[in-house]
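RESIDUES AND SHAPES:
===
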Amino acid sequence: MYSNIKHASNEMFDSVSGTKARNVSKLIKQGKPISILLMGTDVGALGRNSKAWAGGRTDSMMLVTVNPKKKTTTMISIPRDSLVSITGHEDEFPTKINAAYYFGQTKAAISTTSRMFNVPIDYYALLNMGGLEKVINKVGGIDIVPPLTFTYENQHFTKGKKIHVNGAQALKFTRMRYQDPESDYGRTLRQRIVITALLKKSGNLTNLLNQGFLDSIASQSRTDFTFGDMLTLANTYRSATKHIVSDHVQGVSDEIAGQSFEVLPTTEKQRVTNKIRKQLELSKATTGKRFANTVPAALSAYEPAADYGETAATASTWGSDTNTASEYSKAYGSSSDSNLDPNYGADNTDSTSQSTGANATGSDASQTGGYTGYGY
């Protein structure tokens, strides 16, 4: 098994120079909290060339923090349509964050996300969604509880009714978008449900460690976790899957140059920055630049007004995962099996942070002007 893992990890390993803000090897050896940018592409899942990594878009993006001391993993979905200025490709503004990978591959995606929220990204993992399908099949499928009723590609899901799904069914569960009243935010919730269910199912890893399966997954995955990092992660950080917090960044829709974007208000960005930095046990700091990088003066006309989305109505929902804190949580409230609850702690109530309700429109909102840089 050791040999199989080492062989596969060598194949999927792909370091990206200039993206490490911290000494990650030291952090992981000491069991310190770490962050991971988890990205999913659809290359290969719909019959496309699984080796065509370049040119795709990361329609699934999650910023994951793992804190072994608190035994907590936090998954924060980033809307794929988030309006950003992509690192190294600022002249392409206005652009969506899912296109950062298209323009500048993993390095641009990492840098843009890190600068957007002023947080360090210690590792990344890029997974072809076809690879996710294989993993789910290999563990014998997963149990999920749909947060709403819908039928997609001849597969029916009933709100609140537990269903056992295979890999293909799980992808259908996560892909549906237009029937969901919460649109892409509802889709990102379903992505987190699937990943959480998979994390809980991965307690028995034995059937995942044969060389044929690992090699097939390695061909559809990329990461900068070394083999040694993986071993340490398995030994030291697995306790963090006991408490999984689900959240997302809430944007406000806008149409710019004929395209639909999600504009992330600074108040909401600050809430997310506070949450991530607290989970990483870092000091508080001002969130990143409004669009991650400077917008060229010639393109500034595409920028929404500075206070766009900064209203009392929207701010009242911040400080909690608006998907799971509303009707979606009801699907799990009646379940007697706590292991099926992928949104444990999704209300994210924290009296010690400036992250909820009126506080979100107060002191955090005053930080819209400055940018202090990386406070690592």
Residues 228 and 234 are 10 Å apart (CA to CA).
